[in-house]
Amino acid sequence: MTKVKICGLQELEHVRAASTADAAGFVFAPSRRRISIEQAAALAAELPESVEKIGVFVNAGLDEVLEAVQKVPLSMVQLHGDETDDFIRSIPVKVVQAFSVRDIEDVKKLERSIADFVLVDAPGIDFRGGSGRTFDWSLLGGASIDPERLIVAGGLDAVNVGQAINSLAPYMVDVSSGVETEGNKDADKIKIFIKTVKGDSMQQTTGTVKETGFFGRFGGQFVPETLMKAVKELEAAYTEAKDDADFQADYHKYLKEYVGREQPLTYAARLTEAWGGPKVYLKREDLNHTGAHKINNAIGQALLAIRMGKRKIVAETGAGQHGVATATICALLDLECVVFMGEEDIRRQQLNVFRMKLLGAKVESVTKGSATLKDAVNEALRYWVTNVEDTHYLIGSALGPHPFPTMVRDFQSVIGRETREQILDKEGRLPDVILACVGGGSNAIGMFHPFVEDESVRLIGVEAAGEGVDTARHAATLTKGTEGVLHGAYMKLLQDENGQVQEAHSISAGLDYPGVGPEHVHLEDIGRVEYKAVTDEEALASVIKLSRLEGIIPALESAHAVAEAEKTAAAMGSDEILIICVSGRGDKDMATYAEKLEGLA
Ligand SMILES: O=C(O)c1ccccc1N[C@@H]1O[C@H](COP(=O)(O)O)[C@@H](O)[C@H]1O
């Protein structure tokens, strides 16, 4: 099992919290975490003998290192400076040599290390280490280093450590900033980190939940132990609620009286004429209160949270539609609401940011990674880990650990159920083709689910091809992704050969997620649903078409489904029926349309 080191300890309370770790680090180098040899000795005395006591130095004199080894006493020494091989040989205990990894040249250097262990870290900012930043783990892909000598550090925390272990299989993981709050060590975070790695790492969880929440081979509950209780509690609460007539009545009352359901299935006469093929119908999720399908799910989960006695909600948002839906429901039901949103998405979707604030939600800007949806999910998960007792994570798509993908699908299935009844009513038969856009995949799974058993109905999910699926800038997870774990579920995702999650791109903030809901991956796997990809440019052209032909300005996400529908319709006859799910309206995208569409129009 991977060992854990908690570094930068300065106070007794935190030393105690770290007593179940395998190693404790004391920083003697220039740092805000620096302590004296005497202080380290007093703290080390409180630790069990089995815990390694590691001193961190940067270009210190040999006398200082030897004094610390003897007085603390230290069982290992960690060197972050430019220490020579002779210096390393002079140290009477095991030595960890740290390397900042920026490029392949750094990897070559660490391969030559004579130290007992090699520690890989991100380059420091103010000091030689402890910056809280991750480095590109894939650089170690071809490195000739025995994993039994490898210690991984740099920006680790309870959320990403599972992925670090899965990618690099190191001897030990080392954390400092990731177990701090506002620059100080946090006893809860220390315990959570240790438990995540030792008690129930992502790898170990696999075995325990094989039976639960899988769609074929996909899904599951790949979460740290610290979230397992909350996930199980949610699973139990949802299992009970979904069969409870009162809960269902309440949920449907809000859908009718607050969201404004049922939404029409509009016959698109001019689009039908322009495409010259099948009869085209539009399922009008754009008419929902708050402007998109997201509210169907937000209401269901908020009611469930209240049923579980949780009155605080955390959510992530990409385009802002889920954030607005969540903030809306929280205002309505008097729940506290925090929404994490990538800085890049905040820039693209300012109107929705203001809406959320106006509704009383706190919007937290996420600057890590690509500062988009996946990073917002990471931060929301982190927040949930530390506030799990009184907070429900109201996830916005059919993603995450079981029961989220099933639960979100069920709450969104109102789309497909209404559509089914409406088309039978209007045409007396089922449609030939249904299309919906897929980011995480919630409007699509809600639309498809009631038709999955109807083999005559062709189901097409449409992903974002961004600037093209053969470029590096797309979000076509099902088309180009490979299998792996992301945000608690086994799915398909955009990752490199070392399991590093890649950045997804789409002009549409709601589609640029590098994974996809596990049920979609299963439906593709068994050949029930086809998945296609549409570029930014094609989606923009469809915005113009739908606006001019039907007087409906779609959201950028929905425009992807319209673009693919046009291609599909070209091969269909006039006796056939095609339905497009218009998942949301374009108000939120108006700034992008104003910027991009002048030339095209
Ligand atoms: O923690 C410090 O302040 C520090 C200062 C100088 C050298 C190393 C230091 N700490 C080491 O840095 C890495 C990564 O820490 P983080 O989790 O990214 O904050 C770790 O090995 C610490 O031992």
Condensed summary:
With 601 residues, the chain is an alpha/beta fold. It has 24 helices and 24 strands.
Pick out its properties.
single chain, 601 residues, alpha/beta, TIM Barrel, Rossmann fold, 3 domains, 8-stranded parallel barrel, 6-stranded mixed β-sheet, 40% helix, 19% strand, binds ligand LGQLAAA5
What report would you give on this structure?
This protein is of the alpha/beta class. It has 3 domains: 1-196, Alpha-Beta Barrel (TIM Barrel), CATH 3.20.20; 224-257 and 287-401, 3-Layer(aba) Sandwich (Rossmann fold); 263-286 and 412-595, 3-Layer(aba) Sandwich (Rossmann fold). Helix content is 40%, strand content 19%. It has 24 helices and 24 strands. The strands form 6 sheets. It has an 8-stranded parallel beta barrel, surrounded by 4 helices. Strand 3, helix 3 and strand 4 (76-79) form a beta-alpha-beta unit. It is elongated, with a radius of gyration of 26 Å. The ligand O=C(O)c1ccccc1N[C@@H]1O[C@H](COP(=O)(O)O)[C@@H](O)[C@H]1O binds next to strand 2, strand 6 and strand 8.
Topology at a glance:
Elements: E1 3-6, H1 12-17, E2 23-27, H2 37-44, E3 52-57, H3 62-71, E4 76-79, H4 85-89, E5 94-100, H5 104-111, E6 117-121, E7 150-152, H6 161-168, E8 172-175, E9 180-181, E10 184-185, H7 187-199, H8 202-208, E11 214-215, E12 218-219, H9 225-242, H10 245-259, E13 265-267, H11 269-275, E14 279-284, H12 294-307, E15 312-317, H13 321-333, E16 336-342, H14 343-348, H15 350-358, E17 362-366, H16 373-386, E18 391-393, H17 404-412, H18 414-427, E19 433-437, H19 442-448, E20 458-466, H20 477-480, E21 482-486, E22 489-493, H21 518-525, E23 529-535, H22 536-550, H23 556-569, E24 577-582, H24 590-600
Parallel strand pairs: 1-2, 1-8, 2-3, 3-4, 4-5, 5-6, 6-7, 7-8, 14-24, 15-16, 15-18, 16-17, 19-20, 19-24, 20-23
Antiparallel strand pairs: 9-10, 11-12, 13-14, 21-22
Helix pairs in contact: 10-12, 11-22, 12-13, 12-17, 13-15, 17-19, 18-19, 22-23
